[in-house]
Amino acid sequence: MIKIVSLSKKIFHRLPLVILGVFLALLLLEGVLRFGEHLFFLSQERRNAPSFSLEKPYRIICLGGSTTANGGDFSYPRQLENILNANSGSINFEVLNKGIPGATSALILSRLE
Fold first, then answer.
1. What pTM did the predictor assign?
2. Domain ranges of the chain
């Protein structure tokens, strides 16, 4: 009986520490994910910057989820730009990749406004 009572007291004394540890771990995870999101948007803007600074008559903005955002030079927006510029003669096209991984239609719509 005494061992059971002392064991339950130990558990109740350690329970707040466990809860605090889980809370801090989740808080750290949230911070890392937000930092990663920030880095993603910075790299996307950097990829779009060289073509955005050039004078071009036609600009196309690609919106969407991870299939739009990911892939770098192999993403469909970059491939679209290459195909259009290769087959258009003297007309220049610029395709901006504004895809967001995991984006929903509601999120894309809110970012348009």
1. 0.56
2. 2-112
